[in-house]
Hints:
The two termini are 13 Å apart. By secondary structure, this protein is an alpha+beta fold. A four-stranded antiparallel sheet has the order 1-2-3-4, with helices on one face. It has one helix at 67-80, and strands at residues 12-17, 23-29, 35-45, 50-56.
Amino acid sequence: xxxxxxxxxxxxxxRVSSESGNQFIDIxxxxxxxxxxxxxxxxxxxxxxxxxxxxxxxxxxxxxGDLTVAFSEAKKIMxxx
Length: 81
């Protein structure tokens, strides 16, 4: 899976996925204009026979002043997974 631009609301502006597609990072823009990374994992529940998206806490550290830098950091993190 590659990078997918998402526009679910004004704050979520970019998604970077792992190779497997089971983990991803959403790049979100804060009210002050900075960017933060929110990390998620998809897990399958065999009893319910469905996938759930779970937010991983804490988020990757840092606030980024530039979308390009935030995107680069998200790609680095996903490359490690």
